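Q: Could you fold this chain for me?
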Amino acid sequence: MNEHPQPITGGVAGDLPFRTLFDTAAEFIFVIDPGGHIIETNRYACEQSGYAAHELRGKPVTDFFTESSRQLYMIRFPRLRSQGHARAEIELVCKDGRLLQMECQATAVADAQGKATHFLLIQRDISALKRAEEKARQHQQESAHLMHLSVMGEMAASMAHELNQPLTALISYCGMALAQLKEWPAAPAGLVDILQCANEQAHHAGAVVQQIRSSVNQGNIRKKPVDIDQTVREVAKLISWELSNSQVLLQLDLQAGGYRVQANSVQIEQVLLNLIRNSIEAIGQAGISDGCLRLKTRVSDTPSLLISVTDNGAGVAPDIGNRLFEPFQTNKESGMGMGLSISRSIIQAHQGTIWLEQPGPGDTMFCIRLPYLEDTHD
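A: Sure. Below is the predicted structure, expressed as structure tokens.
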């Protein structure tokens, strides 16, 4: 086998019309021999990778791959020889050390006898797509982490609230019992000490509960100016697959006009995603075939922005409407009843309010009001 093949002048890349197409294609194209050496490459591949054509010709194509991609090549190349085609994602190393994520489609080029004489590797740069996918994955992980923390915080706050009253009563009962025992000359030995210990422990438990409530109420989150219309657009992208799968039409009516709020964007997205998913489930439970969901933003007369999420689902049962934002209350067939309680806590931590309206039969509208930053709108 020729270890240093010469550039080909006919056939695969030498024909003038093909050569023109070969060099003007906006994709990386390598022509390699059966041994895996580069015979020819197009102009775009050279421009994007930083290599001159003579630096690529004659070299094993794997010289320009990362180690993991070399291993993948060793697995896929025999399949390319036997089947005549293969596809894989590889990492290409540019001359300046940059790594490009490439989607590679390889095809065998056969002679008149059907023997593969060359292989055409067409590679599309998907680095931007991979970065976007990684960003979306990290965003989802952060959102899920915040949701987990919110659930735990909301449950802790709810438990602290419920425990506070019986602990207060216990402290009161211990105090009264101690006062009466001290006036009883024939009190059993050690009973006063036992009640005193119980009273101290009850006070300690009360202090712990108060500390939990204070920690939850601090709302220690990072905030920055957030464009509400852009946030709603991002939410629409994140939820697009679920909407399509549920055959629910989403309508956007964005009129916030570049006004911004001081907020943690992930938490605001979390609230909107929760409201949208509730609407999707409500529409599904009602068996509505033409489900429709509307997200609207607008500037209020007061220095605030209004966001509304409206659906044409089953509506909210009257007996639960007033308690819907309380912990462990739900209008769904299954669920913990924490989503709306968490949403309320998040909006309140942003100095905002959230409430429920039912503008028509079967319609449900959740409204959010957030103060905007007067000096940061477009």
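A (continued): DSSP finds ten helices and twelve strands in the chain.
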